[in-house]
Specification:
alpha/beta, seven-stranded mixed β-sheet, amino-acid biosynthesis, NAD(P)-bd_dom_sf, 7 helices, EC 1.17.1.8, DHDPR_bac, 226 residues, globular, Dihydrodipicolinate Reductase, domain 2, 4-hydroxy-tetrahydrodipicolinate reductase, Rossmann fold, four-stranded mixed β-sheet
Length: 226
C-alpha cells in the first residue's frame, strides 16, 4: 500500500493552504502529480479539469466541494471531520454519479487496526474498555472522527478521553481490562505523511471507479486484491 503508483494524477485540492493541503501538494508533486485546481478561503484557481478533487478543509466547504465535483464530473476524496447527516446526505447523492471516498482517517495502519478490533471484539466482551485519543491543540472536534470509527468497529459504547496538546499528529489507544490484566492497543501517527500516502491511494482508487460511496477500507481491500 505504501509503494507509489506510477500513474500521474491531475487533481483539485480544497483546503490547499492548510497543513494537510500543503503536505498533500508536496507528496503528490514528488510523484509527478499536478494540482490543477486550488481552493481555500477567498481563493479559487481553476487551471483545467481535475480527475479527482481532494477535500481536507472544513464542514462549511463541503457543499461547494460537491458542486465543484458536479461541475467537472470528477470523483471526490474527502477527509474533512465533524460532518453532519446533511453532509453525508449530499455526499451520497453525489456518489450516485461519481465515486466518493470518505474517511476520517486515511492511515493504512488505522484501517488495519479497525479490522483487528472487529475480529477480536468478541474476546473482550466481558472486559472493561475505554479509549484515549490525543491530537494537536488546534484540532477542533472531540472526540476525533477516528475515535468514533474505532468505537464503531468495537461495536459497543465506551468512554473516550480526548486530549488536545502540542503538535501531536494523532494517537489512539484502546484499553481493555479485567480484574487481573490489561491489554492496550495503540496507533501513533509519526507525521502527516501517514495520512497523505493513504489519500493518494484513495485518489488512484477513485480513478478506477465510475460511481459509488466508499470508505478507506474499500481502498485497502482493492489494493490487497491486486
Amino acid at each position: 500500500m505504501n509503494r507509489p503508483n506510477t500513474v500521474n494524477i491531475r487533481y483539485g485540492l480544497v483546503g490547499a493552504n492548510g497543513k494537510m493541503g500543503v503536505e498533500i501538494q508536496s507528496y503528490f508533486s514528488s510523484l509527478g502529480d499536478l494540482c490543477v485546481l486550488r481552493k481555500d478561503r477567498g481563493v479559487l484557481e481553476e487551471i483545467e479539469r481535475p480527475q479527482v478533487i481532494i477535500d481536507f478543509s472544513s464542514p462549511d466547504a463541503v457543499f461547494e466541494t460537491v458542486e465543484l465535483c458536479r461541475k467537472y464530473s470528477c470523483g471526490l476524496v474527502i477527509g474533512t471531520t465533524a460532518l453532519t447527516e446533511e453532509h453525508f446526505s449530499r455526499l451520497k447523492e453525489l456518489s450516485e454519479h461519481v465515486p466518493v471516498v470518505q474517511s476520517y482517517n486515511f492511515s493504512t495502519g488505522i484501517a488495519i487496526l479497525k479490522r483487528i478490533i472487529k475480529e477480536y471484539a468478541s474476546y473482550f466482551e466481558d472486559w472493561d474498555a475505554a479509549m484515549v485519543e490525543i491530537h494537536h491543540n488546534q484540532k477542533k472536534d472531540a472526540p476525533s472522527g477516528t475515535a468514533k470509527m474505532l468505537k464503531q468497529a468495537l461495536g459497543r459504547e465506551i468512554p473516550i478521553s480526548s486530549i488536545r496538546v502540542g503538535g501531536i499528529f494523532g494517537e489512539h489507544t484502546l484499553i481493555f481490562s479485567n480484574s487481573g490484566e490489561t491489554v492496550e492497543i495503540t496507533h501513533r501517527a509519526l507525521s502527516r505523511r501517514a495520512f497523505v500516502i493513504g489519500v493518494r491511494n484513495a485518489a488512484l482508487f477513485v480513478l478506477g471507479k465510475e460511481k459509488g460511496f466508499f470508505s478507506y477500507d474499500d481502498v485497502l481491500e482493492s489494493a490487497q486484491a491486486r
